Amino acid sequence: MRCPRPISSLRRLVLLLALASLSAAALADEGPSADGSAPSEPDSMTPAGSAPSPADGPVCIVGARVHAVVAAPAYATVCMENGTITSVRNAPAPAGAVVVDGRGAVLTPGLIDAQSQLGLLEVNAVPETRDADASTDHEIRAAFRVAPGLNPFSMVVPITRSGGVTSVVSAPGGGLISGQAALWDLGPADATDLVVRESAYLVVPFTGRALREDARSRRLARLDEVFDDARVRAGNPEAFEERRMRDLAAHRLDLIALEEVRVAGTPVLFQAQRVADARALLALAERHGLRPAFTGLADGWRIAPELAEAGAFVMVHPMRNLPAQFDELGAREDAAALLDEAGVPVILTTGTTHNGRNLRFIAGNAVRAGMSAESALRAVTLHPAMLAGVGDTHGAIEVGRVANLVLWSGDPFEFSSRPVAVWVRGEALPLEHRQDALRERHRERGVYD
Amino acid sequence: MLGDDEDSVESFRVSMQPAPVLIENARVLTADGDRHDPGHVLFAEGRIVSVGPGTASEVPDDTVRLDAAGRWVTPGIIDAHSHLGVYATPGVDAHSDGNEATAPITAEVNALHSFWPQDPGLQRASAGGVTTIHVLPGSANLVGGRSVTLRVRRGAMAASDLLFPGAPEGVKMACGENPKRVYGSRNRSPATRMGNVAVLRQALYDARTTLRELEAHEEELRTWCEDGARGDAPEPPARNLQRETLARLLRGELLPQVHCYRADEMRVMLDLAEEFGFSIRAFHHAVEAYKIADELAVREVATATWADWWGFKLEALDAVLENAALLTVAGARAVIHSDSAYDIQRLNQEAAKAYFAGLAAGLELTEDDALRWITANAAWVLGIDHLTGRLAPGLRADVVLWSQHPFSVYARADYVFVDGIAQTVRGEAEHPWSDFELGQWPNEVQP
Q: ipTM score here?
């Protein structure tokens, strides 16, 4: 196989940066210019090839336009050490630091795809490679946590990372209650601790397809029953264990998991579309003390103030503008912009597993449809982190946060730009993947005769 | 002439462009090798009159002028692979009209007869700059039926209103996983890839017999005419729509559009085409085409593919972002298609993805190359490259005015002209094209 010769990730970085054509574009230019001083000239650059290993001290990216998400865009030096961001300020890199030249480039937090089946699905039509659906005889699968089934060696991981995505939430599907999604960092495949949150959210499908053979009201009643029963069990676990209790609506582990979700405030992600569904599910969440979130919600823009009031995160795919099903008649491409304007915390997702690398273009399309670039960036970084309960460690560039960072050759949302370096937990990871190897093997074949 | 092909209908609705249009001060990408900046496009009576740098030398008095300062002009986008209308939205069973999955060979059906002109996807495709679509049956069958080339215009009451005048029909064929899965799961042939090929070959041999019968009849008829047409005309053989479609395919009158993913299977299909003496017009999806780019170039078989779809089934595992770019560099004809009611709205973006991926891999491509993937090359696949797909005098006035460079994620189609008539004008309040969407949004103005 004619693969690229392995080179140290740091050396690679310098080479890549030297090659990158750095054009400032929309996102690079946006934001208040008042506090964005000119790029600071680093005192000295580590020449390619002689860079010390990051273990020797901090790595600092200098001269990049930094979109911190929690602060206005500005030029700054960002340093990381031991997997954590250690400083963000407009000052030269400290002596002894490994310096990465970010001049002309844009630095953002690593992107987070909030609803994927990465690591749970290799090839859709090959059942042996699917681990996202706990197809069992019962429909309440609250105890199904996908995390132990995640495969960090999936060929899809490096492809996803090549698009600047450094974390994903891998989610289960199917059933009345699908199970619990996990947030994980796309670090080195052999790392043992990639899962950050085993219980990022609980998935509850409530869309046209799930409802094809089940009336909405009946499904709501079943959800009410099972959440009720979870509390009945929790109120008297001894009686439950000793079979001194009436039959409950779900299996033991699922009832326990549902109570844990309620107590921990784990979000319950409803896959729903219509106004009536959203309202019914908000009421259900209120009755049972759950923290609601939504995905889809074609009609959400009609009740944006109600959603904002409820503080519910809403996952939107900004390209879904067709009346694809009868509960999506309200679909429109500017839904994300309308929700964002109304104060709803919006999350943008790709809705795919294999092309999670396109998350940045999804964000670009949300901007195309009227969302601000800053909001779109937040919708693929901090908001998904907050939903998954890691809003204090992920999704922004700030001292103390995990060093998941992407350095872009220009506007991250544009086709003409690309990631030139990706750090996961402070480690610069290669951007090459299987598709690059295929391309290289076949690009120079002899001419057919 | 497997002549009186009653399946073909010519559109009888003719719309006239009300006045000539001159787009000025534009950055013009012609898909014909040129970039005029600033440049102009003048069109009248449905045809392009003048394209070039500066402004037009002779402009009729009643011309509507569009100042396109800072904006870009391209030919109308052509989608070489669409299921709009045959798998219309909403995607309910009642709209599942794309696969006559009752037998592996259904050459007798025609996508035109499934096409629902009220598909809400048409208006959105237009908003994405699409002016022409090739609508195909699905890939459940080895031969799925005839495919048709349609205009993306408002106001059609029947699919035939949208027929592209002069466009040949295609024949949708498929290899690989889909046919063998569909029929294998019913415990009938084909259940394997070798079954796929065997069933197809048998059908083509049957068609060859039909072709001989038809040609013999044509000969009889000619002789009868030459002899003064005395007495009764010779009796034609009984009609067999399935075999006649394949016979016309063998005679090169219908363009074979072949769904095929893997390089090795494309090679099998190329061998099969050689066995029967016809030329495959294009492989569709063809995620592994880059592996045989040189052969596809030599044989002049086009490839219509996506920018980045992969992994949804095993035969789609080896996709690369640079497929179109590698084909182009090898001298083969590449096309970026949609196969999707969503992606058809952003074929400019799909082309941009593939273009910049190619550049990043160090492949020598021009902006014009990439624009051709969704215009001129797609027109060739449909056999209409002499009618549309480039900005050149005499061609149909299928023109898009973009707010920005069409390869920017932020670009929008401001004006989309089909035969010189504006179908989409961005920002103009309008009712839905589709009756289905009318009145669905009470108390709100639909964008």
A: 0.95
